[in-house]
Specification:
Structural class: mainly alpha
Strand order of the largest sheet: 4-3-5-6-7-8
Distance between the termini: 85 Å
Number of domains: 2
Strand content: 5-15%
Shape: elongated
Number of helices: 24
Largest sheet: 6 strands, mixed
């Protein structure tokens, strides 16, 4: 806790101040936009950007993570709370904060129980497919706001402003950085300035609405934004705890996944190590703080964290400065925000989420592992067809299902000796020599209840193919664990081979596995022997066979 502050150096201050200022300018339009995605008043997005990063700075392990509202989590919040309360009502705001409280408490509990490893059960292709589907859902949901009405009957002044804002944002995203570099700015400054384009577009659109007749053409605006800091309180609805529990846990899981993905990418650049359980506690505390300050679920944002990093952030002090500047913005007069047009805000959302469309992972998966590509497609389709929550469940099920499917079909290699060496390799990949009297099989997976049947069937298939073999040597160099079902399978194989007059030998058994086997009677009843290496086993069996062949025949 606050280890970074105890080690703080004066040389880090300039970078933290500049990053705090840049991210604060970015957060004003972004926070309000993501609040709209969640179905909340725009100012709630700024509320959710003040207390959470302050609390995360106390407990989190990432030096450059920017915690606050994020598109996907906002979408999930709206999907959960929308059916329970009317958008804009007091109950809606209370339920959104209650959802943040549940997610935060769940994350804190997971951190206390050291369950950070759970993030490993959501594969990258599945996460990419989920993000792709959610981004499309968010973009499509903003179409009516962008056009001022349904696409078949748009409000033309709103549509003109929204599409012009969209075009400006796309143009700035694609060309502004390169243009600024050609004007003599450094690459770093040009990239940061390009990422602040949404703020520039919002300011121009707001001035246009406030100073010209466009404000009287029926274009919807944000309206009055209350000044002042959010009040700290705990407002909940006793009737909705059960209803919000399951989606709150699910959102907490997604918060952790998204945040870890963003934080790990930046930690690699800085040669830093994240502590997953500290991240759980930091994110949990941040969401509890959001709930207490009238916010909604928050997480670390990849795009915002990247800007924070690029702007020079060295420690969480940058996020503390961002929160302080946002608090000052609320204390200052906020009347100008009332003129901010909703079509422009919708355009900023569309451009932000379209930048999350990742097809590179799908392309790589399709070339490398089709099962991962199928998981990507199924998750994206699940989000689009069934909704965000169902898409998340589909993704988790596919991740675990793919893991179980692969573990249940382990690779088993027939080994042979490389000429003139003591190395043994797969005969299908190397010119390795085998001996008819012995069969060497290497099992390339742990033996557990999910794969013992497939392993046993493969062993029997190889024994039928090598009918002359009198000894079977199982090379267990890749086996790190054998569960009880696997133990029984080995015992049954040993008995079966004994009845057929075949020997079962084990080679290269790892220490922890051997320690477990010593607590059973398998080693005592083994038809063959236990060998330190495959080479020793092969030499022993070869010598024994030669001795039997050379022995005189007595009558």
């Amino acid at each position: 806790m606050l280890q970074w502050l105890r080690q703080y150096r004066r040389a880090q201050l300039a970078g933290d101040v500049s990053a705090g200022l840049v991210v604060a300018m970015m957060m004003i339009p972004q926070g309000m936009a993501y609040a709209l995605v969640a179905g909340l008043p725009p100012v709630v997005g700024i509320y959710a950007s003040i207390a959470p990063p302050l609390v995360y700075a106390l407990f989190g392990s990432s030096m450059t993570q920017s915690v606050g509202p994020m598109a996907i989590v906002s979408l999930m919040t709206g999907a959960v709370v929308g059916p329970l309360a009317a958008a804009g009502s007091g109950l809606y705001t209370v339920l959104a904060a209650q959802l943040a409280l549940i997610s935060g408490l769940a994350l804190l509990a997971c951190g206390a129980l050291r369950l950070g490893f759970l993030a490993n059960f959501f594969s990258r292709p599945v996460m990419s497919g989920f993000t792709f589907g959610a981004a499309l859902v968010i973009a499509l949901d903003q179409a009516d706001t962008l056009l001022g009405g349904a696409w078949r009957a748009p409000h033309w002044p709103s549509a003109a402003l929204g599409l012009a804002s969209l075009a400006a944002l796309v143009l700035e995203r694609q060309s502004m950085a390169a243009l600024l570099r050609r004007c003599g700015l450094s690459a770093l400054v040009a990239d940061i300035a390009a990422k602040l384009a949404p703020m520039l577009v919002v300011v121009i659109a707001t001035l246009l609405m406030a100073q010209t007749r466009y404000g009287r053409l029926g274009i919807h605006m944000i309206g009055a934004v209350p000044a002042g800091l959010p009040r700290l309180n705990l407002a909940t609805s006793a009737a909705h705890w059960t209803t919000l529990l399951q989606p709150g846990l699910l959102i907490g899981f997604i918060i952790f996944l998204i945040s870890m993905s963003a934080a790990q990418a930046l930690a690699l650049k800085r040669n830093e190590k994240l502590v997953s359980n500290a991240e759980l506690i930091g994110l949990g505390a941040a969401n509890v703080a959001s709930a207490l300050s009238g916010g909604f679920p928050v997480t670390g944002s990849m795009s915002r964290s990247a800007v924070n990093f690029a702007a020079g952030a060295n420690t969480p002090l940058a996020s503390v400065i961002t929160a302080a500047l946002l608090a000052l913005a609320l204390v200052a007069p906020t009347g100008w925000l009332a003129w901010l047009p909703l079509p422009t805000l919708a355009a900023t959302i569309v451009v932000a989420v379209l930048g999350m469309l990742d097809v590179d992972t799908l392309r790589t998966s399709w070339r490398y592992d089709r099962s991962d590509a199928v998981a990507w497609l199924a998750t994206a389709a699940g989000v689009l067809a069934l909704g965000v929550q169902a898409g998340v469940v589909t993704g988790v099920a596919l991740s675990i299902g793919t893991l179980v499917w692969r573990a249940s079909r382990p690779n088993i290699a027939v080994l042979g000796r490389l000429a003139g060496s003591e190395h043994f390799r797969d005969v299908e990949r190397y010119p390795a020599a085998t001996e008819p009297a012995m069969l060497l099989l290497r099992v390339d997976a742990n033996l557990f209840f999910g794969n013992v049947e497939a392993v046993s069937e493969r062993i029997e298939d190889e024994l039928r193919r090598h009918a002359e073999a009198r000894d079977l040597v199982l090379v267990l160099s890749a086996v790190s664990a054998i569960d009880t079902t696997g133990l029984y399978a080995l015992a049954e194989l040993n008995q079966s081979l004994g009845r057929r007059g075949l020997g079962l030998h084990l080679a290269e058994v790892k220490g922890p596995v051997l320690d477990r086997l010593k607590h059973s009677d398998l080693l005592e009843r083994l038809n063959g022997q236990l060998f330190l290496s495959t080479a020793i086993a092969c030499d022993y069996l070869h010598a024994r066979a030669a001795a039997v062949t050379a022995a005189p025949i007595s009558f």
